[in-house]
Amino acid sequence: MSNDEFVRRINNQLSTIAENQARFDERQVQFDRNMLAMQEAIAGLIQVARLHNEQVTAFQQQGKDQQERLDALIRIVESHLSNHP
């Protein structure tokens, strides 16, 4: 192998390495964009889950309050009925 052929091979290999690195860099940029989009989506889902949890807690409290009022009404009606023959 002549010196020129050796230099050409080395240059071709270096060119291939540079092209591979450029493709890798492009893929890395796209991966980073996708990762950021997923992180934002996950943050949005966490906010939705927290809001849902707050609403469930509020509904549970409303149900508890309504049950207490209903129980009080039942006691009043039962007391009223038991005092009248």
What does the model show?
This protein has 85 residues and is mainly α. It is 94% helix and 0% strand. It contains 1 helix and no strands. It has one helix at residues 3-82. The protein is rod-shaped, with a radius of gyration of 36 Å. The termini are far apart. The mean pLDDT is 95.
Number of helices: 1
**Structural class designation:** mainly alpha
DSSP strand tally: 0
Rounded mean pLDDT score: 95
Low-confidence stretches: none
Cα end-to-end separation: 121 Å
- Overall body shape: rod-shaped
Order of helices and strands: H
Q: In percent, how much strand structure appears in the residues? A: under 5%
Indicate the percent of residues in helices.
Answer: over 70%
Q: Describe the main β-sheet briefly.
A: none
- Using only C-alpha atoms, the radius of gyration works out to 36 Å
Write the layout of secondary structure elements.
Blueprint: H1 3-82
Labels describing this entry:
single chain, 85 residues
Brief sketch in words of this structure:
The chain has 85 residues and is mainly alpha-helical. Helix content is 94%, strand content 0%.
